[in-house]
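Standup, Tuesday
Yesterday: got the pipeline producing structure tokens again.
Today: sanity-check two examples.
Blockers: none.

Example 1:
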Amino acid sequence: MTIQTRTAIRNGSGFELTEALLIYSDGWAAVATRHQIRATDSTPSLKPGELIGSRALTALARDLVSGATTSCEYLPENILANGLDRTVWWIPAGRREMYFARPAIDKIDKANNGRKAAQPALVLVASGRHLRVFALRDNKRPTPGTPLMNAPYLNLYDDGTVCLGSSRVPDRHGPDQIEAWTQGWHDSAFSHANPMGTQKRLNHRLGVLGLWQRLIEQQTEHFPTDALVDSGYTLNAVIASGSAKR
């Protein structure tokens, strides 16, 4: 099969085929191998490849886009950072609907399912089809040095990664996707505490589920941010490396 493509490359004289990437995917995750090119009688073929890691892929992507002519785009105030591998934004505190599913819903008054409750300000980090969520003590736009709190919700791992389950979320990140990501987060149903989690999510005698039930029943205007627990991350650490703590 012959594939024909056309492209306009700035200052592109002298380009020749040197290597190729093969991408393997199961529809959820993907891996890639990098292959040098073997030219035999002017017919190129692939040499044995090697697995290429995320850092090398990111560097390659930067090289590919560095010579491209791209348009600028307006970034709204709620976006904190945007890059090739993640988009970070924040949501002010407010009252929003809370949804629960089994087994958590069996431990609360089912009449409270879908009712509004006071929520803390949040920081969301989308990367591909993965989402991390943190809370803020103060209801204001965070700065790089702002400490991030553990988000006081179920379905979260220690590093803030959300167990998305069947949540309807985008399959990529970017400034044009944050509304869909935010809506997907708000519409998700909280069902369980992740068994691998070892960090304390909340410093409150009622625990996570008990506190949410009280906030719903009392229709409190503000979330008690003094109950939030420091995650060990700063905003800058999440932006710079995605997983390293301060």
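Example 2:
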Amino acid sequence: MGLLIMAIVLSLVYKEASLVLGDLGTATSYDPPYTPTKCNGNRQDQFPPGNLFVAVSEGLWDNGAACGRRYRLRCLSGNNRPCKDGTIEVKVVDFCSKRPCPSTTIMSNDAFAAVSHSSDAKINIEYIQYIYILSLLLHVLLFESINFPYYLIFLQDLTRNATDIIY
């Protein structure tokens, strides 16, 4: 029973119990068509809700390991004060196809519009990759799911947005 209570508490704060790795870079936008991508070809299910996704430059690509990673980013500055307040979460779906890549990330039009007033600007961004630490929660929920199968549905919803799980 103690493990069940710990799982519930951890599930409520799992985003706060994340490791973060942050950096500064630049962003521009790119127009459709967005497929095929280097990550998942023509699959439409690779795109997150709201079309908040990016293609990344060589520095973030990591020989394809960047596919599926999620970053929280915000606009810091640019010409003519393009930044909107707030942050968004984007998913990496592609490698920048332009040589040289014009920025650290190339954002979908929807993602770029969420952080910038200007659709054709080059902006300075701060981005943070989230690495979710869910191993304890996974083990607890899998153990408890033997007696309580509805936890498996909760586990599936919880891990759907996790990009990397550290064991």
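Quick observation on example 2: The CA atoms of residues 64 and 111 lie 21 Å apart. The chain has two domains: 2-13+132-159, 19-131.
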